[in-house]
Design a protein that fits this description.
By secondary structure, this protein is of the alpha/beta class. The chain contains three helices and four strands, in the order E-H-E-E-H-E-H.
Length: 129
């Protein structure tokens, strides 16, 4: 399963917030067997995580242009799941694109989401400052 996490400020240096959450979540999802992609804007402190693709978009303060670039990148990647913070509505244009109807039968989500007894993502990890 291919997951995309989107936030314009995913950097190697962080002050907390959603960027810190995505930086911690991405390796755990990768370790659980998911194909993870991060989409962010150019940074003087670029993020590099082993086994995780990072797509760096041009930095802009024009949010409409950024949303268009995010939509084009997500369309090219065609992930199964897209997660983004609601701050600045970065995936707004992508969410408004028409979708092909799903075909076939529905299947339960793979672990850890499909297994209510799973605690792989609930286990705390050690964070070193």
């Amino acid at each position: 399963m291919h997951l995309a996490l989107v936030h314009r400020d995913l950097h190697a240096v962080t002050r907390g917030g959603i960027g810190t959450l995505y930086r911690a979540l991405a390796p755990r999802l990768r370790d659980a067997g998911y194909d993870v992609a991060l989409i962010t804007q150019h940074s003087p402190h670029p993020l590099a995580l082993e086994g995780i693709r990072v797509f760096t978009l041009p930095r802009t303060d024009d949010l409409d242009r950024h949303r268009q670039t995010v939509a084009a990148t997500l369309t090219a990647l065609d992930p199964d799941i897209v997660e983004s913070s609601s701050w600045e509505a970065e995936t707004l244009h992508y969410a408004r694109l028409p979708r092909q109807p799903l075909t076939g039968t529905s299947a339960p989500l793979p672990p850890p989401w499909g297994d209510p007894m799973s605690s792989r993502l609930a286990q705390p990890s050690r964070v070193h400052a």
